[in-house]
Amino acid sequence: MSRREQQEALSRTALGVFRLNGQFLALSEKLAEPAGLTAAWWQVLGAVLPEPLPVAGIARVMGITRQSVQRIADLLVREGLAAYEPNPAHRRAKLLTPTAAGRAAIDRIDPGHAELAALLTRELGGQEAFAETVRVLERLSTALDAVEGGLSLP
C-alpha cells in the first residue's frame, strides 16, 4: 500500500468512526430516553455496573475527560441514580456506584438494547460476523493507543 493509499485508508477510517459515533449516540439517546436517562448518563452508569470506579477510572474506560465524567457523575448522584462511596485505595477519589434506582433505569433500557443487538446481528450476517466486527474495532483502538505515544507532532 502506497503512502497515499495509507493516508486515504486513515481518512476513511476516521470518517467512518466519526459517523459510527454519531449513529451510536443517536440510537443510545432513543434507547435511554424511556428510562429517563441520556446517552451520557447511561454510559457513566454502565461503566460502574460491574464495580464502583473513581471518576478518573470511568474517564479512562470511556476515553473522555475526567471533567466530563465528573459533571455527569454529580448529576447522577443529585438525581439519586448513583452514589459516592469511600475509596479504600485513595481518600479523595471517591468511588461512583449505581443506586437501586440507577440499576432499575438501566434495566428499563435492556429490552430495546436486546432488540438492537438482535437486529445488528442479523444485519451483519450472524453472530460470528458481529464478533469479528467487535474484534476489528478493539484492534483498531489498541493500535491507536500504541501509536499515539510515538506520534511526533507538536
UniProtKB/TrEMBL annotation:
Name the record gives this protein: Helix-turn-helix domain-containing protein
Gene3D superfamilies: Winged helix-like DNA-binding domain superfamily/Winged helix DNA-binding domain
PANTHER family in the cross-refs: MARR FAMILY REGULATORY PROTEIN, TRANSCRIPTIONAL REGULATOR, MARR FAMILY
Pfam families xrefs: MarR_2 (PF12802)
InterPro entries in alphabetical order: HTH_MarR-typ, MarR/SlyA-like, WH-like_DNA-bd_sf, WH_DNA-bd_sf
Residue ranges that the Swiss-Prot or TrEMBL entry lists as coiled coil: none
PROSITE patterns found in the cross-reference section: HTH_MARR_2
Organism in which the protein naturally occurs: Streptomyces narbonensis
Lineage: Bacteria, Bacillati, Actinomycetota, Actinomycetes, Kitasatosporales
Domain HTH marR-type, residue spans: 7-142
